[in-house]
Amino acid sequence: MKAFVLEGPGVFKLKNVPVPIPKPSEILLRVKAAGICGSDIPRIMITGAYHHPLIPGHEFAGEVVSIGEGVREEIVGMRAAIYPLIPCNSCRWCKEGLYNLCDNYDYMGSRRDGAFAEYVCVPASNLVRIPENIPFEHAALIEPIAVAFHGLRNAGLKNGENVVIFGAGPIGLFLCQIAKLLGANSILIIDIINQKLEVARKYGWAETINASEVDVIKEIHLKFPHGADLVIDTSGSSNALHQAVAITRKHGRILLIGNPHDSIKILQKSFETILRHELQLIGTWNSIMLNEWGQIIQWMASGEINVEPIITHRISLDELPRIIQLMHERKIVHEKVLVVM
User: Computed from CA positions of residues 170, 146, 3, 132, in that sequence, does the dihedral angle turn out positive or negative?
Assistant: First the structure.
Protein backbone atom coordinates (compact mmCIF):
# COMPACT_ATOMS: atom_id res chain seq x y z
CA MET A 1 0.00 0.00 0.00
CA LYS A 2 0.98 3.64 -0.38
CA ALA A 3 1.89 5.50 2.84
CA PHE A 4 3.42 8.78 4.00
CA VAL A 5 6.31 7.63 6.19
CA LEU A 6 8.07 9.86 8.72
CA GLU A 7 11.66 8.63 9.09
CA GLY A 8 12.85 11.40 11.42
CA PRO A 9 12.27 15.11 12.08
CA GLY A 10 11.86 16.72 8.67
CA VAL A 11 12.62 13.47 6.87
CA PHE A 12 9.64 11.89 5.12
CA LYS A 13 8.63 10.27 1.88
CA LEU A 14 5.79 8.50 0.16
CA LYS A 15 6.57 4.77 0.11
CA ASN A 16 5.03 1.44 -0.76
CA VAL A 17 4.78 -0.61 2.42
CA PRO A 18 3.00 -3.89 3.25
CA VAL A 19 -0.70 -3.72 4.14
CA PRO A 20 -0.85 -4.29 7.92
CA ILE A 21 -2.52 -7.40 9.29
CA PRO A 22 -4.96 -6.87 12.16
CA LYS A 23 -3.97 -8.46 15.47
CA PRO A 24 -6.52 -9.95 17.88
CA SER A 25 -9.19 -7.34 18.79
CA GLU A 26 -8.13 -5.13 15.88
CA ILE A 27 -9.67 -4.30 12.51
CA LEU A 28 -8.17 -3.22 9.18
CA LEU A 29 -9.60 0.08 7.98
CA ARG A 30 -9.50 1.33 4.41
CA VAL A 31 -8.86 5.03 4.96
CA LYS A 32 -11.25 7.24 3.02
CA ALA A 33 -10.27 10.66 4.40
CA ALA A 34 -7.70 12.01 6.85
CA GLY A 35 -7.28 15.54 8.16
CA ILE A 36 -3.98 17.32 8.71
CA CYS A 37 -3.98 18.59 12.30
CA GLY A 38 -2.01 21.66 13.33
CA SER A 39 0.00 19.40 15.64
CA ASP A 40 1.04 17.21 12.69
CA ILE A 41 3.23 19.95 11.19
CA PRO A 42 5.71 20.41 14.08
CA ARG A 43 5.64 16.66 14.72
CA ILE A 44 6.64 15.95 11.12
CA MET A 45 8.96 18.88 10.54
CA ILE A 46 10.59 19.63 13.92
CA THR A 47 10.17 17.27 16.87
CA GLY A 48 9.58 13.92 15.22
CA ALA A 49 7.38 11.19 16.65
CA TYR A 50 7.96 8.80 19.56
CA HIS A 51 9.72 6.37 17.25
CA HIS A 52 10.63 6.12 13.58
CA PRO A 53 9.71 5.12 10.98
CA LEU A 54 6.08 6.04 11.68
CA ILE A 55 3.00 6.89 9.62
CA PRO A 56 1.35 10.08 11.02
CA GLY A 57 -2.34 11.02 10.88
CA HIS A 58 -4.92 10.86 13.69
CA GLU A 59 -8.03 12.57 12.24
CA PHE A 60 -9.64 10.01 9.97
CA ALA A 61 -12.54 7.88 8.85
CA GLY A 62 -13.00 4.91 6.57
CA GLU A 63 -14.48 1.47 6.02
CA VAL A 64 -13.69 -1.75 7.89
CA VAL A 65 -12.39 -4.32 5.38
CA SER A 66 -11.13 -7.16 7.60
CA ILE A 67 -10.97 -8.19 11.25
CA GLY A 68 -8.59 -9.82 13.68
CA GLU A 69 -9.32 -12.68 16.05
CA GLY A 70 -12.08 -11.98 18.55
CA VAL A 71 -13.84 -9.27 16.52
CA ARG A 72 -17.44 -9.75 15.37
CA GLU A 73 -17.75 -10.48 11.65
CA GLU A 74 -20.68 -8.06 11.21
CA ILE A 75 -18.25 -5.17 11.73
CA VAL A 76 -16.83 -5.77 8.23
CA GLY A 77 -18.19 -3.06 5.97
CA MET A 78 -18.90 -0.63 8.82
CA ARG A 79 -18.43 3.07 8.04
CA ALA A 80 -16.50 4.47 10.98
CA ALA A 81 -14.60 7.37 12.45
CA ILE A 82 -11.73 6.47 14.75
CA TYR A 83 -11.03 7.70 18.27
CA PRO A 84 -7.22 7.98 18.05
CA LEU A 85 -6.36 7.66 21.75
CA ILE A 86 -5.94 4.06 22.89
CA PRO A 87 -6.30 3.94 26.70
CA CYS A 88 -4.74 1.33 28.98
CA ASN A 89 -8.11 0.78 30.77
CA SER A 90 -6.30 0.03 34.02
CA CYS A 91 -4.87 3.27 35.43
CA ARG A 92 -6.73 5.48 37.93
CA TRP A 93 -7.98 7.87 35.25
CA CYS A 94 -9.29 5.15 32.95
CA LYS A 95 -11.17 3.61 35.89
CA GLU A 96 -12.80 7.02 36.46
CA GLY A 97 -13.82 7.22 32.79
CA LEU A 98 -11.30 9.98 32.05
CA TYR A 99 -9.68 8.06 29.21
CA ASN A 100 -8.19 11.23 27.70
CA LEU A 101 -6.02 11.52 30.85
CA CYS A 102 -4.76 7.91 30.71
CA ASP A 103 -1.28 7.50 32.19
CA ASN A 104 -0.23 4.79 29.74
CA TYR A 105 -2.04 5.57 26.50
CA ASP A 106 -1.10 4.76 22.92
CA TYR A 107 -2.01 7.15 20.11
CA MET A 108 -2.65 6.75 16.41
CA GLY A 109 -0.28 8.78 14.29
CA SER A 110 2.28 9.70 16.95
CA ARG A 111 3.00 6.56 19.01
CA ARG A 112 1.79 3.99 16.49
CA ASP A 113 1.06 4.11 12.76
CA GLY A 114 -1.77 6.40 11.78
CA ALA A 115 -3.91 7.27 8.78
CA PHE A 116 -1.70 8.92 6.16
CA ALA A 117 -1.87 5.62 4.32
CA GLU A 118 -4.35 3.60 2.32
CA TYR A 119 -4.94 1.16 5.21
CA VAL A 120 -4.42 1.22 8.97
CA CYS A 121 -5.02 -1.25 11.81
CA VAL A 122 -7.16 0.05 14.67
CA PRO A 123 -8.47 -1.48 17.93
CA ALA A 124 -12.10 -2.46 17.31
CA SER A 125 -13.04 -0.67 20.54
CA ASN A 126 -11.98 2.65 18.98
CA LEU A 127 -14.49 2.44 16.12
CA VAL A 128 -17.34 4.94 16.12
CA ARG A 129 -20.08 4.07 13.63
CA ILE A 130 -21.14 6.93 11.35
CA PRO A 131 -24.52 7.17 9.61
CA GLU A 132 -24.88 7.13 5.83
CA ASN A 133 -25.71 10.84 5.64
CA ILE A 134 -22.30 11.88 7.02
CA PRO A 135 -19.63 11.74 4.26
CA PHE A 136 -16.27 10.20 5.14
CA GLU A 137 -14.62 13.58 4.55
CA HIS A 138 -16.79 15.15 7.23
CA ALA A 139 -16.50 12.18 9.58
CA ALA A 140 -12.71 12.54 9.54
CA LEU A 141 -13.20 15.82 11.40
CA ILE A 142 -15.21 14.40 14.30
CA GLU A 143 -11.97 14.24 16.29
CA PRO A 144 -11.13 17.99 16.20
CA ILE A 145 -14.81 18.89 16.67
CA ALA A 146 -14.85 16.69 19.77
CA VAL A 147 -11.72 18.43 21.06
CA ALA A 148 -13.59 21.75 20.85
CA PHE A 149 -16.70 20.27 22.51
CA HIS A 150 -14.65 18.73 25.33
CA GLY A 151 -12.98 22.08 25.95
CA LEU A 152 -16.32 23.89 26.26
CA ARG A 153 -17.58 21.21 28.64
CA ASN A 154 -14.44 21.64 30.77
CA ALA A 155 -14.98 25.40 30.78
CA GLY A 156 -18.58 24.98 31.96
CA LEU A 157 -20.11 27.24 29.31
CA LYS A 158 -23.49 28.45 30.55
CA ASN A 159 -26.54 29.54 28.60
CA GLY A 160 -26.46 33.28 27.88
CA GLU A 161 -22.72 33.77 28.44
CA ASN A 162 -20.45 35.88 26.21
CA VAL A 163 -17.50 34.09 24.59
CA VAL A 164 -14.32 35.43 22.97
CA ILE A 165 -12.07 33.09 20.98
CA PHE A 166 -8.46 33.76 19.94
CA GLY A 167 -7.63 31.98 16.69
CA ALA A 168 -9.88 31.34 13.67
CA GLY A 169 -8.38 28.01 12.69
CA PRO A 170 -10.53 24.85 12.52
CA ILE A 171 -10.73 24.45 16.31
CA GLY A 172 -11.70 28.11 16.72
CA LEU A 173 -14.43 27.86 14.08
CA PHE A 174 -15.78 24.64 15.58
CA LEU A 175 -15.79 26.34 19.00
CA CYS A 176 -17.95 29.12 17.53
CA GLN A 177 -20.54 26.65 16.25
CA ILE A 178 -20.67 24.54 19.40
CA ALA A 179 -20.78 27.55 21.73
CA LYS A 180 -23.81 28.74 19.77
CA LEU A 181 -25.47 25.32 20.10
CA LEU A 182 -24.80 25.36 23.85
CA GLY A 183 -26.58 28.69 24.25
CA ALA A 184 -23.85 31.34 24.20
CA ASN A 185 -25.34 34.83 23.96
CA SER A 186 -22.58 36.55 22.00
CA ILE A 187 -19.54 34.98 20.29
CA LEU A 188 -16.56 36.94 19.00
CA ILE A 189 -13.51 35.46 17.28
CA ILE A 190 -10.11 37.13 16.81
CA ASP A 191 -7.41 36.48 14.21
CA ILE A 192 -5.00 38.41 11.97
CA ILE A 193 -6.07 36.79 8.68
CA ASN A 194 -9.24 38.23 7.17
CA GLN A 195 -9.75 35.19 4.94
CA LYS A 196 -10.23 33.04 8.05
CA LEU A 197 -12.44 35.56 9.82
CA GLU A 198 -14.64 35.81 6.74
CA VAL A 199 -15.76 32.19 7.20
CA ALA A 200 -17.14 32.99 10.66
CA ARG A 201 -18.84 36.13 9.38
CA LYS A 202 -20.30 34.53 6.26
CA TYR A 203 -22.04 31.73 8.14
CA GLY A 204 -23.11 33.83 11.11
CA TRP A 205 -21.07 31.85 13.61
CA ALA A 206 -19.49 34.86 15.29
CA GLU A 207 -18.60 38.52 15.15
CA THR A 208 -14.95 39.09 14.22
CA ILE A 209 -11.97 41.26 15.07
CA ASN A 210 -8.74 41.48 13.06
CA ALA A 211 -6.07 41.92 15.73
CA SER A 212 -3.67 43.48 13.21
CA GLU A 213 -6.07 46.36 12.55
CA VAL A 214 -7.44 47.39 15.97
CA ASP A 215 -6.62 47.43 19.67
CA VAL A 216 -8.15 44.11 20.76
CA ILE A 217 -8.42 44.96 24.46
CA LYS A 218 -10.12 48.30 23.76
CA GLU A 219 -12.54 46.74 21.24
CA ILE A 220 -13.57 43.95 23.60
CA HIS A 221 -14.20 46.35 26.48
CA LEU A 222 -16.36 48.52 24.21
CA LYS A 223 -18.50 45.44 23.48
CA PHE A 224 -18.36 43.88 26.95
CA PRO A 225 -17.75 46.70 29.47
CA HIS A 226 -17.28 44.24 32.35
CA GLY A 227 -15.31 41.77 30.23
CA ALA A 228 -16.21 38.44 28.61
CA ASP A 229 -17.53 35.52 30.66
CA LEU A 230 -15.35 32.97 28.87
CA VAL A 231 -12.22 33.61 26.82
CA ILE A 232 -10.64 30.79 24.83
CA ASP A 233 -7.09 30.71 23.47
CA THR A 234 -6.47 28.30 20.61
CA SER A 235 -3.13 29.86 19.63
CA GLY A 236 -0.88 28.91 22.54
CA SER A 237 0.91 32.28 22.51
CA SER A 238 2.05 34.59 25.31
CA ASN A 239 0.44 37.63 23.66
CA ALA A 240 -2.96 35.93 23.40
CA LEU A 241 -2.79 34.87 27.05
CA HIS A 242 -1.94 38.43 28.12
CA GLN A 243 -4.87 39.79 26.12
CA ALA A 244 -7.19 37.05 27.39
CA VAL A 245 -6.45 38.00 31.01
CA ALA A 246 -7.11 41.65 30.23
CA ILE A 247 -10.54 41.06 28.63
CA THR A 248 -12.01 38.43 30.99
CA ARG A 249 -14.56 39.69 33.52
CA LYS A 250 -13.93 39.35 37.22
CA HIS A 251 -14.49 35.77 38.32
CA GLY A 252 -14.43 34.73 34.66
CA ARG A 253 -12.75 31.78 32.97
CA ILE A 254 -9.94 31.38 30.46
CA LEU A 255 -9.80 28.10 28.53
CA LEU A 256 -6.39 27.08 27.18
CA ILE A 257 -6.89 24.75 24.22
CA GLY A 258 -3.93 25.55 21.93
CA ASN A 259 -0.56 23.82 22.14
CA PRO A 260 2.27 26.30 22.84
CA HIS A 261 5.11 26.44 20.31
CA ASP A 262 7.52 28.16 22.70
CA SER A 263 7.80 29.08 26.38
CA ILE A 264 4.79 31.04 27.62
CA LYS A 265 5.54 34.14 29.67
CA ILE A 266 2.97 35.67 32.03
CA LEU A 267 3.50 39.37 32.59
CA GLN A 268 3.50 40.60 36.20
CA LYS A 269 0.43 42.73 35.43
CA SER A 270 -1.41 39.69 34.03
CA PHE A 271 -0.44 37.56 37.02
CA GLU A 272 -1.78 40.22 39.39
CA THR A 273 -5.01 40.45 37.39
CA ILE A 274 -5.50 36.68 37.63
CA LEU A 275 -5.19 36.97 41.41
CA ARG A 276 -7.18 40.15 41.99
CA HIS A 277 -10.00 39.25 39.57
CA GLU A 278 -10.14 35.64 40.76
CA LEU A 279 -9.82 34.31 37.22
CA GLN A 280 -9.86 30.60 36.47
CA LEU A 281 -7.34 29.18 34.00
CA ILE A 282 -8.69 25.90 32.64
CA GLY A 283 -6.79 23.31 30.65
CA THR A 284 -8.29 20.79 28.25
CA TRP A 285 -6.87 17.73 26.53
CA ASN A 286 -8.27 15.55 23.74
CA SER A 287 -11.85 14.29 24.12
CA ILE A 288 -13.79 11.39 25.61
CA MET A 289 -15.29 9.01 23.07
CA LEU A 290 -18.12 7.55 25.15
CA ASN A 291 -20.06 10.70 25.99
CA GLU A 292 -18.86 13.30 23.46
CA TRP A 293 -18.46 11.71 20.03
CA GLY A 294 -22.08 10.57 19.90
CA GLN A 295 -23.31 14.13 20.46
CA ILE A 296 -21.02 15.43 17.70
CA ILE A 297 -22.39 12.82 15.28
CA GLN A 298 -25.97 13.84 16.12
CA TRP A 299 -25.18 17.50 15.45
CA MET A 300 -23.44 16.65 12.18
CA ALA A 301 -26.22 14.34 10.99
CA SER A 302 -28.85 17.01 11.69
CA GLY A 303 -26.82 19.74 9.98
CA GLU A 304 -26.43 21.74 13.19
CA ILE A 305 -22.65 21.60 12.78
CA ASN A 306 -21.51 22.72 9.33
CA VAL A 307 -18.20 21.09 8.40
CA GLU A 308 -17.91 21.85 4.68
CA PRO A 309 -16.93 25.56 4.91
CA ILE A 310 -13.96 24.65 7.11
CA ILE A 311 -12.49 22.27 4.49
CA THR A 312 -10.37 24.55 2.28
CA HIS A 313 -8.18 21.97 0.56
CA ARG A 314 -8.70 18.40 -0.63
CA ILE A 315 -5.52 16.64 -1.71
CA SER A 316 -4.35 13.17 -2.69
CA LEU A 317 -1.87 11.09 -0.74
CA ASP A 318 0.64 11.75 -3.53
CA GLU A 319 0.39 15.49 -2.87
CA LEU A 320 0.83 15.21 0.89
CA PRO A 321 4.66 15.63 1.13
CA ARG A 322 4.54 18.87 -0.88
CA ILE A 323 1.56 20.27 1.04
CA ILE A 324 3.15 19.49 4.41
CA GLN A 325 6.22 21.47 3.35
CA LEU A 326 4.08 24.40 2.18
CA MET A 327 2.09 24.40 5.43
CA HIS A 328 5.30 24.39 7.45
CA GLU A 329 6.63 27.35 5.43
CA ARG A 330 3.24 29.13 5.81
CA LYS A 331 2.98 29.51 2.05
CA ILE A 332 -0.70 28.59 1.88
CA VAL A 333 -3.63 30.08 3.77
CA HIS A 334 -5.80 27.21 4.90
CA GLU A 335 -8.34 25.95 7.36
CA LYS A 336 -8.67 22.17 7.25
CA VAL A 337 -6.63 20.28 4.66
CA LEU A 338 -8.02 16.81 3.93
CA VAL A 339 -6.25 13.88 2.35
CA VAL A 340 -8.93 12.09 0.32
CA MET A 341 -8.46 8.49 -0.84
Answer: negative
